[in-house]
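Record type: monomer structure entry
Structure origin: computed from sequence
Chain ID: A
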Amino acid sequence: MAAAVTVRVQRDDFDIAAEVSALCRGRTDIGAVVTFSGLCRDEAGALGALELEHYPGMAEAEIERICEEAVERFGLQAATAIHRFGRMEPGTNIVLVVTASPHRQAAFDGANFIMDFLKTSAPFWKKEHHTDGSAGDWISAKDADDAARDRWTRRGSHTA
């Protein structure tokens, strides 16, 4: 059975259990499923909301490219990536990555790979809104995110 890749960029929340069920439905060849969900955190009570914007069309295409590379690189049987946009309150879902493979290590590696590239390559922008009513700046990429992505391109990294 061919690997299934599902990518969505949406304003609405997602149901993690429903997404895992949809990914696995009718698949008896899957031996491991890994999920990662990223949530909006309150930054020690200072963050009232996080605003996420994206480049429509381009964001979906880049996430799909990343997922397809993960499928090929790690032999995944399926991958789902959902990223939300709009204004999110602390505690709400932002991103979901689900990977499936015959064995757990490939599923873990695939999920990590997708998140590391999604955070650095997909065209999303984040702006903080503070609890005092002030708007923060647009958040810049972190060096740690670039380092996490770059570990996949170094010699000896997990390549298929």
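Annotation 1: The chain has a mean pLDDT of 92.
Annotation 2: The beta strands are 4-10, 32-39, 47-54, 78-84, 86-88, 93-101, 124-130, 135-138.
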